[in-house]
Design a protein that fits this description.
alpha/beta
C-alpha cells in the first residue's frame, strides 16, 4: 500500500460506513483506504495514472463525470483531495447524486482555497499525466455546487485523533478545537441525498 492515509478521512469513514454499506471512492489513487476500512464493500475508482498507482489498485477505471454504476446503488461515495481534479464538477455531483441511494451520503475531503491555489500553480510546472488540476473554490462555492445537484450539505469538523486523554480534554476547551481546525489545510463536507 502506498499513498497517504489521513486520520480525519478514516475517522469519518468509520463513523458513517456500516458493515453492509456499498462504498465508492472517487479518485482513489493508490487505494490506501481499501485495506483500512474494516467494514463495508469499498470500490476504488480513478482515471489511469502511472504517477501514483497501478491498475491492480483500482477496481473501476473511469472519469468522475461518468460513474459506471446503477442509479440508487451506493450507500456512500467519498473523495479525498480529488474533486478539484474533476474537470466538469457540476456533472460529477449530478452523477454522484444519481448513484447514491435515497438517504445516501457523499463525503468530500478537500483542501482549503489557499492550498488549492498552491496546487494549481505547481501543477502547471509539473507533469501529472492525466492529473490536471481544474478548480480553486472556497467553502461556500463548493457547498453551493453540491446543493445545486440536490444535496443537503453540512461542514464536518476536523477529526483529531488524539490518544492521550489529557490532550483530548484540552482540545475540547472552548475555542481550542476551532483554532486547531482553522490551521488544518483540509475541509470536510457531508452531502446527503
Amino acid at each position: 500500500m502506498s499513498g497517504t492515509v489521513y486520520s480525519n478521512t478514516l475517522h469519518w469513514l468509520k463513523t458513517f460506513v456500516e458493515p453492509e454499506s456499498k462504498v465508492i471512492e472517487i479518485g482513489s489513487g493508490s487505494g490506501q483506504y481499501k485495506q483500512l476500512l474494516d467494514k463495508g464493500n469499498l470500490i476504488c475508482t480513478d482515471v489511469p495514472n502511472s504517477y501514483y498507482q497501478s491498475a491492480a489498485q483500482i477496481d473501476v477505471i473511469n472519469r468522475g463525470e461518468a460513474l459506471p454504476f446503477a442509479s440508487s446503488s451506493a450507500d456512500i461515495l467519498f473523495s479525498q483531495g480529488a474533486v478539484d481534479y474533476i474537470e466538469y464538477l457540476d456533472t460529477h455531483f449530478d452523477e454522484a447524486f444519481r448513484v447514491l441511494k435515497p438517504g445516501g451520503k457523499m463525503l468530500v475531503f478537500t483542501y482549503k482555497k489557499k492550498t488549492l491555489r498552491r496546487i494549481h500553480k505547481e501543477s502547471k510546472n509539473i507533469f501529472f499525466g492525466s492529473r490536471k488540476h481544474f478548480h480553486i473554490f472556497n467553502e461556500g462555492q463548493l457547498a453551493q455546487k453540491l446543493k445545486n445537484s440536490g444535496f443537503t450539505v453540512k461542514r464536518l469538523p476536523f477529526a483529531l485523533n488524539i490518544k492521550n486523554s489529557i490532550l483530548q480534554e484540552l482540545v475540547e476547551l472552548p475555542g481550542i478545537r476551532n483554532i486547531i481546525s482553522r490551521n488544518r489545510s483540509w475541509r470536510t463536507f457531508l452531502a446527503e441525498k
